[in-house]
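Changelog excerpt

This revision adds worked examples to the README so contributors can see how folded entries look when concatenated. The first example is reproduced verbatim below.
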Amino acid sequence: MSRIVVILNPAARGEKAKTLWEKVRRLSEDALVRITTEAGEARELAQQAVQHGCEIVVAAGGDGTVNEVVNGISGSGVALGLLPIGTMNVFAAELGIPANNLRKCWEIIEAGNVREVDLPVANRHSFVQLAGIGFDAQIVQETSRDFRKNFGPLSYLVTATQIASRKPPNLIVEANGKQKKGSFVLIGNGRYYGGPFVLFNDAKVDDGKLDVLIFKNLGYLDIVRYLSGIVFGKHVDMHDVEYFQTKKVVVRGAAENLVEVPVEVDGEVIGKLPVTFRMSHRKLKVVSPEME
């Protein structure tokens, strides 16, 4: 098998899949390109690449594709490469890898500069950038793939307005020997969330810490306040937002909740509460630009 295996998710660009495949193929004449046809296949292809001794597995898609590939190579020592061509490419942005510039991305991969970053785990599922419990995960769960393809990030906003009219769940967060309460929780490995917005001010992808944000309320006006605070970088100063760092955090639903509370990582729902988050310090190798 080739030293580099590219796992391409053509769904990242819908009907342009053939053109996209041709572009990737021209970039990577010496690499093996594998195309996914269904959800979950990227993980299986990544595992196969590891078994056949490849050195770099490239995730060509969005954050969901990256997550699948990471779970396929986790613990193997094989490096992750990135071709950020999906709807959301937050992890690539975190590492300074330019989206929509395949040539530059491939030059980074061929240069082979490997950086060791943290690998957080939710129960037994690894992720690279962000996890959400409650409101955030509910939006992901209720926004169909077709809706996302057609409307991009706007699709999430439409779903969010519908969910905001419901009674929020009560969440219990246990970390650093303390118990806290909130309506929804975000867990970060890097600074960014959903694109260019810095959500976790102190986060670093290799500091061995989980960054945790607890939002206490969830009415329409609260959401507007939170979004405004995030845009202007003032959300951590709000009286009903709590931000801290930890190596382990447990989130569970309160007994009075009437519905199960979903959990998402890197934009994909992986299950329901309860969930335990742990940090594996610098356990993922990523091919990235050289740090200045």
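The second example, added in the same revision:
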Amino acid sequence: MNPRLKGKTVEELATALLEGEGFRILERRKVIRVGESQVAEVDILAEKDGEVYAVEVKSGRISVTDVRQAFTNARLLGYKPLIVCRGFTDKAAEATAKALGVEVKVFPDFYFFASPEELYRIIERAVYKVITDLSSARIEEIDLEALEVLKSIAFSRSWEEAAQKLEVKEEEFKRILGRLRRKGLITVRGDYDKVRAQALFLLSEFTLIRLLEFLTLEDVKGL
């Protein structure tokens, strides 16, 4: 994710939140100068009830350092400090905001956004879960009947098509599938695609195991 695009997205959410509470947006990306030098930038300038606020927007929870930064930037501009974020990292940050008079507005829970690092971790956990779920089946329970059922599921696009490949009625197919579940071969729940994915995974593992069984020690050394 482009960091600048991410920043704009979070700022748009903050803008919507502020406007919903009666703020008027005056300026975005306000540059702070001391003499001829540019020393900082404030995300949003907003006005409400005749008071102008220097608004810092954070995609995560704020620390003591974030609070101090917002306070300093606001003082340099002569405005009131305000932060829009997802909450405080700890009690110290909350106490510092209160002591310095930094107003904090928290994004509602349904406002979801993530940094590239957070998004990577979310996807990584999801992938690990999928792999764990698919590999939880008891592959040693595969027999000839189970093998045929798994093939019919893996190479079909629906329950109906899988039943047709086995040349059985749908009710009988459900009973067969139930036996595979009791054996621990089909462990995932949900739509057909999930079960099909596990069937494909099991067939790949089963094929690899059988291949290794036929290889001699010399064959393995030569790989």
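Reviewer comment on example two: Confidence is low (pLDDT under 50) at residues 1-8. The beta strands are 24-34, 37-48, 51-57, 80-85, 103-106.
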